[in-house]
Amino acid sequence: MTTLPERAAYQCYSAVNPIHSTIYFSPDCGEELAKLGLEDSSAAYFVSRAAAMGRVGPGTVTATFFHFSHELVARHLPAAWDVVSPEAALEARLRAADSVLRRVLGEEVIASKEMAEAAELALRATEACSRLARPLYAAHADLPVPDAPHLALWHAATLLREYRGDGHLMTLVGAGLDAVEALASHTATGKGMSTKWVLLTRGFSAEEWEAGRQRLRDRGLLTADNELTEEGARLRQSLEDETDRLDAAPYEHLGAAGVARLTELAASFTKTARENGAFPADLLGNR
Question: Cα separation of 209 and 199, whole Å?
């Protein structure tokens, strides 16, 4: 087993993940799906991300996405599949990824040898990912790798994102946190979605959000001012530590030199994307 520098795997993931996430904060995917008749933004998100699993119902999506209200999911699925098939949704998402990355990175970066190198490294890392108990990762791992290097990198970033995400959900369930409690405790760290964005996108009401915060207070995890208590901070850290452990395989497989190089390349791409407005300025925060 390769020994990596402390937090090197997490730093690599943090550099690579935004390359996938660009599609969630741009209009491109929604516009592609609207052309096919699916105009609601929440429906577009559920369809585009769930399509790799096929024509699944709301229960499967609520279980695998975790951080969304089941009522919101059920409002759109399975009805959305009558408008856009999973196959068409996957094609639309890939077209969107292409247009987004070309816009936020630029044609020179898209065509660079560094892009091709990053794609090769990221795909090599995914070779060590296991499908066992990782439903979203496993579904995406069955998809073909795109030929274009920037889309191959986006695909690999998707695999690494869903692999880590599946593992993270295991830790949340183990800690006895429901969707709102998980979101609220993450928001309190200052590294999670701000309250504004949670309420805009996750389908929970302000009352449900406050009730979740109260449950965290009752457990001694959150203060009256919605800051993490010492116990709450320890819990969030333990969740991250366990997620790191469950997510170690792809980066250990890539090796220290490969992880360092992929981190360097992906961080450069992510920096360019941020500077070109790929993400909202108020996306993260502890309020």
Answer: 8
